[in-house]
Structures are given as C-alpha cells and as structure tokens.
Automatic annotation (TrEMBL):
One of its GO terms (biological process) is carbohydrate metabolic process. Coiled coil: none annotated. It holds the Pfam family Glyco_hydro_28. The chain crosses the membrane at residues 21-47. Belongs to the glycosyl hydrolase 28 family. Gene3D superfamilies: Single-stranded right-handed beta-helix, Pectin lyase-like. This is Pectin lyase-like superfamily protein. GO terms for molecular function: lyase activity; polygalacturonase activity. InterPro entries: GH28_Enzymes, Glyco_hydro_28, PbH1, Pectin_lyas_fold, Pectin_lyase_fold/virulence. It comes from the Eukaryota. Keywords: Glycosidase, Hydrolase, Lyase, Membrane, Transmembrane, Transmembrane helix. It comes from Artemisia annua.
Amino acid sequence: MVETLTLAPTPSIWRSHRSRWITNLITSYKTLLAVLWIVVFTSFFIWQRNVGSDGFMFFKRGVVARQLPVFRPVVVNITDFGGVGDGVTVNTVAFERAVFYISKVAKKGGGQLNVPAGKWLTAPFNLTSHMTLFLDQDAVILAVDDEKVWTLMPPLPSYGYGREHPGPRYGSFIHGQNLRDVVITGHNGTIDGQGLNWWKKYRQKVLNHTRGPLVQIMYSSDILISNITLRNSPFWTLHPYDCKNVTIRNMTILAPLKEAPNTDGIDPDSCEDMLIEDCYISVGDDAIAIKSGWDQYGAAYGKPSKNILIRNLVVQSMVSAGISIGSEMSGGVSNVTIENVLVFNSRRAVRIKTAAGRGAYIRDITYKNLTFDNVRVGIIIKTDYNEHPDEGFDPKAFPIIRGITYSSIHGEGVRVPVRIHGMADIPVRNVTFRDMSVGITYKKKHIFQCAYVSGRVIGSIFPKPCENLDLYDENGSLVRKSVSENASDIDYDI
Ligand SMILES: *[C@@H]1O[C@H](CO)[C@@H](O)[C@H](O)[C@H]1NC(C)=O
Ligand SMILES: *[C@@H]1O[C@H](CO)[C@@H](O)[C@H](O)[C@H]1NC(C)=O
Ligand SMILES: *[C@@H]1O[C@H](CO)[C@@H](O)[C@H](O)[C@H]1NC(C)=O
Ligand SMILES: *[C@@H]1O[C@H](CO)[C@@H](O)[C@H](O)[C@H]1NC(C)=O
Ligand SMILES: *[C@@H]1O[C@H](CO)[C@@H](O)[C@H](O)[C@H]1NC(C)=O
Ligand SMILES: *[C@@H]1O[C@H](CO)[C@@H](O)[C@H](O)[C@H]1NC(C)=O
Ligand SMILES: *[C@@H]1O[C@H](CO)[C@@H](O)[C@H](O)[C@H]1NC(C)=O
Ligand SMILES: *[C@@H]1O[C@H](CO)[C@@H](O)[C@H](O)[C@H]1NC(C)=O
Ligand SMILES: *[C@@H]1O[C@H](CO)[C@@H](O)[C@H](O)[C@H]1NC(C)=O
Ligand SMILES: *[C@@H]1O[C@H](CO)[C@@H](O)[C@H](O)[C@H]1NC(C)=O
Ligand SMILES: *[C@@H]1O[C@H](CO)[C@@H](O)[C@H](O)[C@H]1NC(C)=O
Ligand SMILES: *[C@@H]1O[C@H](CO)[C@@H](O)[C@H](O)[C@H]1NC(C)=O
C-alpha cells in the first residue's frame, strides 16, 4: 500500500504508452475507444501537471468533497469514466474503462478507483493488479440481477463442477484472477449483490448453472479487503480461491438469515496465510466456511487451506454454523486458529463437517475464547456429510481428523454444547478441552455427546464431559484414563 503521494506520471512514459497502443492495438472499435480514453487522460495528466503546484491533484475540480485517503499514486473517480450513480444507469463500461485505465498505471504503483455516494448499477466486472477500489460512505455498487449479463466461467478445478450444476458456473460479480496487490476498502460503502432474484430462481430450479459469488479472487496474492459492507450475495459472499496472503478486516457481511440459500459470508478455499478479523457477519448459511475442494477433484488439485487466523468476530447463522471447516476439504485444512468469537442466535456455533470420500485431513485447529449465546449446538464435528459431486469419489478416502483444541469456551442458552460424531473409519483423535463452561437450556443426560473420539479434558469443564476423553486436573495430572474412546452417545433428538 502506498500511503504517500508520488509525482504524477511523466508525459514521456505516457507518450510511449500511447504509441505502443496505437501501433499494436487499433484493431476494433472497442480498442479505438480505449485508446481515445488513454489519449484523453494523458492530455489531462499533462494539463494537471502544468496547473498543479501543490503536488498531485488529479480531478480536483473545485468540488467541495471530503478528502478520501489516498493509497496509490494515481487516483480516479468512477464519474470520470462516465459513471452515473442513479441506480438505473448501467455502469459496466465505466467500471471496465476505469479498471483498464488502472491496469495501465500498474508499473507506477497502481491506481485507486473512488466510488462516491450513489447507487452504481453494473454487470459483473474484473479487477486488476495494483488496484484499490474505494467505496465512500453511502456508495453502493449494485449488481444487475439478470443472470444473462453474468459471465459464465469454467468450474473451479478442485470442485470439478459448478457447485450446484455440472459444467460452467456464473462468475462472481466482482472478480479477479492471477492478481497481486488488490485492495477493496472504503468508508463503509456497500457492494450489494441483489440476490433476491437468484435465491427465488434457485428455489424454483430454473437456473441452469451454479450461482456466482459476490466477490471472488482466484490465484492471487497480497489481497486486502476492509472497511466496507457486502450484502445480498447470490451465492457465497466473499470467496478467496487458491490465494496467498489475504487480509479481511473490519467488514460487515449481511444476507437474510432465512431463504437466502448458500449465502456464506467468507469461504477461504485452498488459501494460505490468511487473516480475518474484526468482522460482523450475519448471513443465510455459514458465516465462515474454510474449504479446499471436493472429493476426487479436490484431492487431484491438492491445495490445502492453511495458516489461517480468524479473530474478533461477531457472527450469526440460523441455517448452518458460525464458523465451519468443510465440508469440501479434500485438499486438507491445517493450522487454523479461531479466537475471540461471539456466535449468537444461531443454529450451530463452530462446526467441522466432512465425509468418507473427501480424503485428506483436518488438523491443528485451535479454538480459543468462544462465546455462544443462544445457539442450538455449540461445538460439532460431523463425519457423514455425504454430499458428493458424482459417483466417482473413493468411498475409502477417509479424512483424518487430528489435533483439535477448544479452550475458554463459554456461553448460555446452548441446547447441546458438544456433539463430536466420529465413526469407526473416521475417528476424531487428539481432541483437547480446557476451561469450558456452557450453560444449557434443555437438561437431558447426554449433552456432551461423543462417538469415536479420543483426547482429554483439562481442568474445569461444564457440562460434564463424555466418558470417551481422559480426565486431567488443572495442573495437568491424569485423574482418569478413558476406557471407552469408541463409545457413542450421540442423540440427534435433543
Ligand atoms: C467524484 O466525482 C463526482 C462528480 O464529479 C464528485 O461529486 C465526487 O465528489 C468525486 N468523488 C471523489 C471521491 O473524488
Ligand atoms: C474476467 O476475467 C476472466 C478471466 O480472464 C474471464 O474469464 C471473464 O470473462 C472476465 N469477466 C468479465 C466480466 O469480463
Ligand atoms: C472500520 O470501518 C469503519 C468504516 O466502515 C470505520 O469507521 C472504522 O473506524 C473502522 N474501524 C477500524 C478499527 O478500522
Ligand atoms: C457499516 O454499514 C453497515 C450496513 O449499513 C452497518 O450495519 C454497520 O454498522 C456499518 N459499520 C460501521 C462501522 O459504521
Ligand atoms: C435454462 O435452459 C432452458 C433450456 O435450454 C431454457 O429454456 C431456460 O431459459 C434456461 N434458464 C435460464 C435461467 O437461463
Ligand atoms: C501481504 O499483503 C499485504 C497487502 O495486503 C502486503 O502489504 C504485505 O507486504 C504482504 N505480505 C507478504 C509477506 O507478502
Ligand atoms: C479502515 O478504517 C480505519 C479507520 O478509519 C483506518 O484506520 C484504516 O486505515 C482503514 N483501513 C483501510 C485499509 O482503509
Ligand atoms: C500457523 O499459522 C500462523 C498464522 O495464523 C502462522 O503465523 C504460523 O507460522 C503457522 N505455523 C506453521 C507451523 O506454519
Ligand atoms: C474474548 O472474546 C471477547 C469477544 O468475544 C472479547 O471481548 C474478550 O476480550 C476476549 N477475551 C480475551 C481474554 O481475549
Ligand atoms: C495433539 O494436538 C496438539 C494441538 O494441536 C498438538 O500440539 C500435539 O502435538 C498433538 N499430539 C499428538 C500426539 O498428535
Ligand atoms: C477404537 O476404534 C479404532 C478404530 O477406529 C481402533 O483402532 C481402536 O483400537 C479402538 N479402540 C478401542 C479402545 O477399542
Ligand atoms: C494445582 O497446583 C496448585 C499449585 O501448586 C495447587 O494449589 C492446587 O491444589 C493444584 N490442584 C490440584 C487439583 O491438584
């Protein structure tokens, strides 16, 4: 991120850009238009340089507007590309031109595209490297909700299919692939997917392809998404796929809690080195679901999700769970820390879900300082989530679940605090509970339910832990060794 202003591009560089473009690319009307834009902007740059004496002052036209923070040497405004924020005009060309323009200043540190207050309707568009998309307060980028203008893209390699239909899938509303250094931020402006029509059509089964996510960044690194609101995604909301070094901070992610199918908040998918913090997420499916591909396709792609830190979140999910891992995890998931999370008014709090056929592993997962407030099931591990892409999966590809630690778990209004449902072929090993006190609303015997689980509880645990686990006192001395790690007292009727 470049916080200080540098000099405006020099005319000579612009001249060389211009001549290269003129000689190489005047092949179509569209290209000609693009060239015209470059010429116009070059002239404008030169003019600005001559006029401006107090450094760079692009498009400072005496408009009384609040100064927005500047992250890049070049700053442009969507209105300068013909954008109209009236909620009716379709601004696809304006966004495309702005992004194209920024792609031409990449070598100089890239560009920042400001989107001022207004409703900016557009079809899906692609981002470029070294770009900051800045949404001012009351700026809303609105997705055209007619699927005919949504680009079709090939299925994700680690899924083999669009998630809902075979063959191609709709691309995301705001999309990027093979990028570096992308920032999406603002003064809490909004990207609104207008998902209502998609959800209806999905339920009526009239869509022929998998719905598109709201924001999807693929095969990219050094991504920062912060300080804005994402809402009403047609499908998963924010989907970093096969990315490295992604930070998601101080975001609000919203969708209706019911009848907004599969509107997960954030789906880190085959990603490494990721930080998600200070977010509020209330959506129609998992608030967060860490994934890494589906059965044989995910195994062949072989890219794990790892080194992920999730902290300081407030999340709600009435259909699924606050924080999930899986169910698609066939590239493996490891080294994930989830801490300081409040899950409220939800069906489940933290869930691991997988099935025979997935293969790979889920290991070294640490949950710390979680608070559950009015949730049905607190901690849950499910090993028979039998949803498969096709019949080609290997039923003997058993995922390995190891090294799951829960500490400082508190809460009230939780019907079933723990349900860890391992199976003979998919036992859950090396589980640790330390310092847990979760109040219950529904008193029945087995509310700390286990099957095929081994590990330990340390110190004070409420409710009374299942017999499958070894018991240690708070100083780490063994009190009682379990003799029944394979016992099952799972009861879904509670
Ligand atoms: C963008 O341009 C519009 C119209 O000229 C202006 O009202 C607005 O203040 C500008 N915003 C920024 C952030 O430059
Ligand atoms: C975005 O880029 C991808 C990859 O190049 C391409 O398949 C897709 O059609 C582009 N989407 C749009 C809306 O231009
Ligand atoms: C979070 O973002 C909002 C705008 O969305 C901003 O007002 C607030 O100061 C940010 N908080 C932090 C800690 O960055
Ligand atoms: C950002 O906007 C969302 C949606 O309008 C709102 O719920 C949230 O409180 C706002 N965040 C901040 C920091 O103002
Ligand atoms: C789905 O395909 C059918 C048959 O080709 C077509 O009639 C229908 O319009 C398509 N639906 C959508 C939403 O594209
Ligand atoms: C990660 O990305 C951020 C930008 O989001 C960048 O500032 C930082 O240098 C990157 N870190 C590494 C280790 O590449
Ligand atoms: C988010 O907002 C806070 C508070 O205004 C600011 O300190 C921080 O730099 C912002 N982050 C980004 C990336 O804009
Ligand atoms: C685990 O992930 C954290 C980020 O959450 C990272 O700092 C740490 O280096 C990773 N550990 C290993 C062994 O890779
Ligand atoms: C635990 O998480 C809550 C937020 O859910 C936070 O307010 C509190 O400070 C955290 N406690 C510790 C010891 O980090
Ligand atoms: C059990 O899990 C903990 C935490 O993930 C890890 O540190 C430890 O090495 C594991 N022990 C065994 C025997 O795998
Ligand atoms: C529990 O089942 C596993 C197979 O999942 C087996 O290897 C192990 O020996 C069994 N343990 C006991 C105490 O029966
Ligand atoms: C744990 O150790 C502390 C300090 O040595 C001691 O006061 C306490 O009684 C021990 N607790 C148990 C359960 O043995």
